[in-house]
Amino acid sequence: MSAGLLEAHHRQYAPAALEADVVRGAVAGRTFEAHPTPVASGGVVWWLVDDTDLRLAEQPLASERERTELLAEISAALLSSLNVQRCMEVTARMAADHLADAAMIVAPGGATN
Asked: pTM value?
């Protein structure tokens, strides 16, 4: 991050572009955002924000969102029919779409009637 911050610090800024130019990087296993702020003398002051915990929390949250979306999609598909044969077809299709290249449902003899 220090090289990126140094490079950003030496750039010539247009006032509107200054606020949008956030530098991100890692230092000693932690992640930081550096936010530039112009000062009256014409220089730039950098505010460092440690966002390590935020980034660590975002990863499992994104996985959980994907899982929830998948479960909602599967639930909606299965609840759209009371026909056992249709539900087995939907189950196989959804499994093939999300879990494997192909899927097959093995049901007891009376389940397809």
From this structure: 0.50
